[in-house]
Structure formats: structure tokens, C-alpha cells
Amino acid sequence: MALVGGLAVKSGKCSNFGNCSLADARKTVEVPAGLDFVCTECGKSLLLTDAGAAGGNAKALVVGGLLLVVLLAATGVAWSLFAGKKTAAAPNAPVPAVTASPPAAGSVAKPEDALQPPLSGNCSDADAQAGLCRAKP
């Protein structure tokens, strides 16, 4: 509703095409508040029209919504292309150094005392894949 000259006024358009010159001309009819909301020429009910602000806003909302959908779709495609697939491989962490205590004075080092890979039962999957496990005797 708009205020014209201090009075509330409704605007509408007649839909009685072919029988009403105001409908054929697509003219807006303004009716003061309190009176019947009918065409001043043919007496048929008018279709309520807004001041024109909502039509532009509705179009802007639709266009904005479509742009948002396109932006989200483009983001999803870019993410899938550039993210790549992550593998479950262990990170390249440094292997801690293993130090052996020096042999006691007067003892002779035997080949069995040398550091050897663990038996296959005590070997991790990563060590087994790297070939660092030995078979049980």
C-alpha cells in the first residue's frame, strides 16, 4: 500500500482482456483504501501489483542463487582436480639410529651378536615390505 495525499492507496491491474480498455492497455488502476478493489471501468476484480520494487528484487535473488550454485559447483570440480588422492603410505620419517654397546674386554664378537633384522613373527608390515625381516631358523 502506498500513501498518496495522506490516504492509503492500493494499485492493481485488470485482467478482463478483450472486454476492458484498461486491461488491454495494461494500465495500473489505483484504488483508495476502504473502497472495493475492482476495476473502475468494467467492475471486475483487480490483480494486486506492487510498487515495482519486489519484481527487481526477485530477479536479483534468482540470479544470485544461480551464481551461488555455479560457484559451488566450480569449487567442487577444482577441489577434486587439485586435491588428488591421498595414499595410506607411511610418511617418510627418519629411522632412529640403533647403537650397539661395545663388546666387553676380552670377549670375541660372534656373527650371531651382530645386529640382525627381527624374525618374521616380530616384524612389522612396513619392514616385511622393505625386505628387512629374516625367516625363522
User: How much strand?
Assistant: 5-15%
Straight-line distance between termini = 97 Å
Q: On the 0-100 scale, what is the average pLDDT?
A: 76
Q: List low-confidence stretches.
A: none
The number of E-state strands comes to 4
Estimated structural class:
alpha+beta
Shape by Cα distribution: rod-shaped
Order of helices and strands: EEHEEHH
Description:
- The protein has 137 residues and is of the alpha+beta class.
- The protein has a domain at 2-52.
- It has 3 helices and 4 strands; from the N terminus they run ββαββαα.
- Strands 1, 2, 3 and 4 form a 4-stranded antiparallel sheet that branches.
- Strand 1 and strand 2 form a beta hairpin.
- The mean pLDDT is 76.
Write the layout of secondary structure elements.
Blueprint lengths: L1 E3 L2 E8 L6 H4 L3 E5 L13 E3 L4 H31 L41 H5 L8
Antiparallel strand pairs: 1-2, 2-3, 2-4
Structure described in brief:
The protein is α+β, with helices and mostly antiparallel strands and 137 residues long. The protein has helices at residues 21-24, 53-83, 125-129; strands at 2-4, 7-14, 28-32, 46-48.
